[in-house]
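User: Good morning. I'm curious how zinc ion would be positioned relative to this chain. Could you predict the structure with it bound?
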Amino acid sequence: MPIWIAVAAMAWMAAGMEAAYRRDFTGALMRVDYFHTGTASKERFSLDRIRVEGPWAGNPRRLLDSTGLGKYRFRLTDPESGRVLFSRGFSSIYGEWETTEEARQEMWRTFPEAVCFPEPRRIVRLELHKRDRQQAFQPVWKLLIDPRSNEVDRSPTTSGNETTLMRNGPSSQKVDLLFLGDGYPEEAGFKRDAERLAEALFRVEPFASRRADFNVTGLFTPAEAAGVSRPTAGVVRNSPLGASYDALGLRRYILTTDDRAWRDAAASAPSDFVVILVNEEEYGGGGIFNLYAAVAADSPYSSHLLVHEFGHLFAGLGDEYYTSTVVYLDLVAPGVEPWEPNITALLDPARLKWGHLVQEGTPLPTPWDKQGHELRSRSNGENSEAGPTVREKEPHAGIVGAFEGASYTPTGLYRPARTCIMFSRKEPEFCPVCREAIEKMIDFHVK
Ligand SMILES: [Zn+2]
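Assistant: Good morning! Here's the predicted structure, ligand included:
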């Protein structure tokens, strides 16, 4: 097809999508809060609240999720015709927790969650889907939503203390990042950290070259005391967003399970992605696809942590490391291809999902000094190698292949490169596969 026809066809499709957006949606953001309850084998969903907030910050030309990422996805359908009006993939804390020993012991727990989407003009059906052991999406919950019901909470959002850190255009055409702070008594300290860490993100490719596709806002929520909860250190704080170390029993894992708290705090500014800066020095962070990223802002590794956790949040990247202690039990079933764009089970090397980035003649699996890495990890602690050093020593260290050891699993799962920001905290760059996954996600939000 001549290029001008392809360009015209794309413009025509984009115009069609924008018309569909105006026909089916009001332009505001609707948020459905619900409780996700269960054990490793049982799962229940129950409605908490439906709310309408400020403008929806998403891309009206991309109503349907074409990325295929996430352990869960939701859809809005027209109950009469069954037509899908909107869809998004996401992951959740529950989705990680259900793989732990506690969940296996049939201990019931509840995690508050929410899905957000443009407010529909008419009655819609909300459907939640979850991947089964073979990674196929199966329905797990559905709910009819009548936007005209008087149960829909339309109370105004409390206005926050906003600072524009970077503005490149309207929200509907940009990726809107919102930095929140937890455990900050003073706004000045939060602003300094937000400015410094936003800059750290845009120093790394592909964010550096795509800087103009982003808006960044900071939103300050005052805390009574400095810092957040660190249960293993005996510190418990009632911080405004509820962030805490020791999430899922891992000292360096920072999450908040107070879903309402951070979403209510975020509601006054338009955002596609929320980063929670935690006013702490101890190494730690967390990031879940399409939920949020949390980072200890004063750790000596805060820049690396921010970029790494943002990779989880923004592009659904999986952890490429495998030598650190985690609590997940068989996250991926043997013989099944993981959905993460940078992890493969290499079931069929001829159809490797990043095969287009592999040079002809590269051995698959790709040899590397696995034993040496494992020895060094045991003696120096986790993630202790930098790309420049390994690139000098190992012949395949600079190329894309399939390197065994990824996603907390030493055998049977493979990562695209010897090292990457998703592999080592000393590595300053994303591997080419992660870079491409991030570029695709930026395109999804702006094109
Ligand atoms: Zn990578």
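The mean pLDDT is 93. Residues 320, 342, 416-417, 420, 422, 430-431, 433-434 surround zinc ion (CB under 6 Å).
Let me know if you'd like a different ligand tried.
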